[in-house]
């Protein structure tokens, strides 16, 4: 029997990160809500409790210690200034946080001095301007920040950019280096003990990331080529090599990054490997 308290996990209830976060948790074997109005869900077999909250508020709950861990965006964690820290990136919700302004001329960061900058992330922007020694007036808006210039309340904006479509539609262009590369992350407090279920949650989510990012590659190759083939497919530690009934040939099995699987198959074929098979990994613990 498990007598430690339930691990309390905050999950985005709406917005860009919500669906993907719940899908990842489901893939890691946790129960997720079926009704989007449900605010709390207890997953008894896994000994965890999920709280569905606005992603912007998640760092606050975790930082204040009312919830143990949470899923939010790196940009939101840093903007909040909450006493929480990143545990691991989750491989979805990737965005850049950038300055942008009307595309009628090419802006320089230094031109922001004395200007009005509209944003929903004042914490992030304030810190970035301070770092650069620029004084500007921040106009805090809730969303649709791209309209702020046309409507006359700001000269430039700082906002989340994913595809860049919203900016283009508004006749704007990004300028300067990205302020931040963001993605969905797991957060905790510095003193969140990992024995209360956090280590297990982390292991499960890492397993999902590996299963998503890697494939299993099997192939047959002449024994004398094993060393060269192993250089093409080194696996995570080392490939598994087993004997084949066919004299002088071996079977090799190794994990390969999904993104390069086709190129690796081409290289193996060129080398002389045959019967090259790729299969998905449904789940794993490494
Ligand atoms: N296309 C996107 N637009 C906005 N935020 C995104 C996008 N893709 C990922 N994100 C990330 O999602 C988080 C923003 O979450 P939020 O719930 O505010 O999304 P949203 O789409 O703006 O939702 P809403 O507009 O309903 O408030 C940030 O961490 C951001 O980096
Ligand atoms: O680069 P893109 O792919 O166009 O995505 C980025 C845009 O999407 C988000 O807006 P959202 O639709 O959430 O509206 P909001 O500004 O009201 O939050 C974000 O604030 C940007 O405006
Ligand atoms: Mg939004």
From TrEMBL:
Subcellular localization, as worded in the UniProt entry: Cytoplasm
Record field: catalytic activity: 1-(5-phospho-beta-D-ribosyl)-ATP + diphosphate = 5-phospho-alpha-D-ribose 1-diphosphate + ATP
Domain Histidine biosynthesis HisG C-terminal, residue spans: 211-282
Required cofactor names: Mg(2+)
Main location (coarse class): cytoplasm
All residue ranges annotated as the ATP phosphoribosyltransferase catalytic domain in the record: 54-204
Highest taxon of source: Bacteria
Regulation: Feedback inhibited by histidine.
Pathway(s) this gene product operates in, as recorded in its UniProt entry: Amino-acid biosynthesis; L-histidine biosynthesis; L-histidine from 5-phospho-alpha-D-ribose 1-diphosphate: step 1/9
Keyword terms of this UniProt record: Amino-acid biosynthesis, ATP-binding, Cytoplasm, Glycosyltransferase, Histidine biosynthesis, Magnesium, Metal-binding, Nucleotide-binding, Transferase
Cited function: Catalyzes the condensation of ATP and 5-phosphoribose 1-diphosphate to form N'-(5'-phosphoribosyl)-ATP (PR-ATP). Has a crucial role in the pathway because the rate of histidine biosynthesis seems to be controlled primarily by regulation of HisG enzymatic activity.
UniProt family annotation: Belongs to the ATP phosphoribosyltransferase family. Long subfamily.
HAMAP family linked to this entry: HisG_Long
Protein name: ATP phosphoribosyltransferase
Organism from which the protein derives: Ammonicoccus fulvus
Gene name for this UniProt entry: hisG
């Amino acid at each position: 029997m498990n007598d430690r308290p339930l691990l309390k996990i905050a999950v985005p209830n709406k917005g860009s990160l919500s669906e993907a976060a719940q899908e990842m948790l489901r893939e890691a074997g946790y129960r997720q809500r079926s009704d989007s109005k449900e605010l709390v869900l207890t997953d008894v077999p896994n000994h965890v409790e999920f709280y569905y909250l606005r992603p912007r508020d998640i760092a606050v709950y975790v930082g204040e210690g009312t919830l143990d861990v949470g899923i939010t965006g790196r940009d939101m964690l840093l903007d909040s200034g909450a006493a929480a820290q990143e545990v691991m990136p989750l491989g979805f919700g990737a965005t850049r946080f950038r300055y942008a302004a009307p595309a009628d001329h090419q802006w320089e960061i230094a031109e922001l001095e004395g200007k009005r900058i509209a944003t929903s992330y004042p914490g992030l922007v304030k810190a970035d301007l301070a770092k650069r020694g620029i004084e500007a007036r921040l106009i805090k808006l809730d969303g649709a920040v791209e309209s702020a210039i046309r409507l006359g309340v700001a000269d430039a904006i700082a906002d989340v950019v994913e595809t860049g479509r919203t900016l283009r539609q508004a006749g704007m262009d990004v300028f300067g280096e990205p302020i931040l590369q963001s993605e969905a992350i797991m957060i905790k407090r510095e003193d969140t003990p990992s024995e209360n279920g956090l280590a297990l949650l982390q292991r499960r989510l890492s397993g999902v990331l590996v299963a998503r990012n890697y494939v299993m590659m099997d192939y047959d190759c002449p024994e004398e080529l094993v060393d060269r083939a192993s250089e093409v497919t080194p696996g995570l530690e080392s490939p598994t090599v087993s004997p084949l009934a066919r004299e002088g040939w071996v079977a090799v099995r190794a994990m390969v990054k999904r993104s390069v699987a086709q190129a690796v198959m081409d290289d193996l074929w060129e080398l002389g490997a045959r019967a090259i098979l790729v299969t998905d990994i449904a789940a794993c613990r490494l």
